[in-house]
Amino acid sequence: MKFRAIKGIFIKEVKEFSREKMAIFWVFIFPILWLLILGGIWGNENPTLNVKVGYYSRENVSWIIHAMESVEVNGERMFTIYHYPGWEDGINALKKGKVDAFLVFPNGFTVNLTKGYPAYIEVYYDKSDPQTYQIVKGAITGFFTELSSRLQEERLNMVGKYVPRNALPYILGFAKPVTLEEKTVEGTKVTPMEFYVTSFIGIQFLFATMLMMSSSVLEEIEKGTLRRIASSPASPWDFLIGKMSATFAIILVSIFTGLAFAFLAFHVKFFPSPLGWVIIVLASIFSMSLGLAIGMLTGSIKTTNAVVNLISMPLLFFAAVVVPESLLPSWARPIAKYFPLGAALKALRKLEIYHLSVSEVRVELLIVTLGALMMLAVALFSYRWRIRRLSA
Q: Which InterPro entries does the record cross-reference, listed alphabetically (predicted)?
C-alpha cells in the first residue's frame, strides 16, 4: 500500500467530480431540494383540524350549534358551522365540497331529548376521500359521544335528587361506566423535519454513494486506466482505497451541507454524536461496497445504474428511509429491521432523535457492522475477480 499513490488517486477523483455537473446536482443539489420539499410540506407543526359542518333543522338547536362552535384545539375552533334552509341545499353543499358533513335534526328531536326518549340526528358524509371521511367522522362522533354522556349524567343527577345519597354514585355509573382520565407525560418531542433529515442521509447512501462508487470504477475500467495501474507501481488496491476515500469525503461534505441547510432553513439542530458518525461510516462502507460489487459483477455503467435504481427505489420506502417503520405493511418491516441501511437509520434515529442509550441500539449496531464487513468482503472478491479478468 502506497500512501502517495492513494493520495494522488484521491485528489484526481475529487477534481474529476468537481467537473461533473450532473454528479454535483445529485450529490448536493438534489438532497437539498428533497429537504426543501419535505420541509415545506411536513416541516411545520401539524395544522389544527377544522371541520366544516352544515346543518338543517326546523327546531331550535342553537344550544348544540353553540356547543360545537365552542370546541377549541390549540386555541382554534374545531368546527365551522353553516346553516342551510333545506335538506337539498345541505346535500348539494356536501357534494360540492363546501362542507365536510351535513347534520339533519328531524322533527321531534327537541321533544324526544327533553322527555328522555332517544333523539336521532341524521349525519351525511362524503366518502370520496376515505382519509378525510375517517377524520371528519371521528371528530363528529367524538363530539356527540361526549355530549350524550354529559346529557345522560345531567339526567341522572336530576334522578339522584329523589333517591338515597349513597345510591347516587351507582346511578351516575350508568352515564359513564368507564371513564378515561387523560394524563400527559413530557417525553422527547420529535418534529417531522428531524425524521426527514435522517431520511436525507439515507438517500445519500441509497443513491449517491452506490452510484458514485460503482460508476467511477467502471469508467476507469472502460478508459483502460485500471489496466495501466495494474502494471504500475501503484497497485489496484491503492486505486480502490483512493476511490473509496474520495467517495466517502464527497458524501461527507454533502451530509454537512444538508445538515447546515436544515439548520438555516428549518432551524433543525441535528448533528450526530461520535457514535452517530460511526454508524454513518459503517453505512457508507456498506453502500460503497454494495455499489462496487454490483458494478464489478455487471461490468457495465448502464446496467449498474439500472440495478442500483432497481434496488434503491423500493428500499427508499421498505427500509423506512422516507416512511416510518410503523406505517409499513407487516411483510416489509423485516426489511427495515434487518437490511443494514435500514438498521443504520433506525439506530441513528434512536440515538440522535430519541436520545436512547447505546444498549438500546446494540442489535442495530451489530446488524450494520456485520453487514458492512460482509458486503466489503463481497466487494473485494468481485473487484479482485474483475482485475484478474483485465489482466488475462
A: ABC-2_transporter_component (IPR051449), ABC2_TM (IPR013525), ABC2_TM_bact-type (IPR047817)
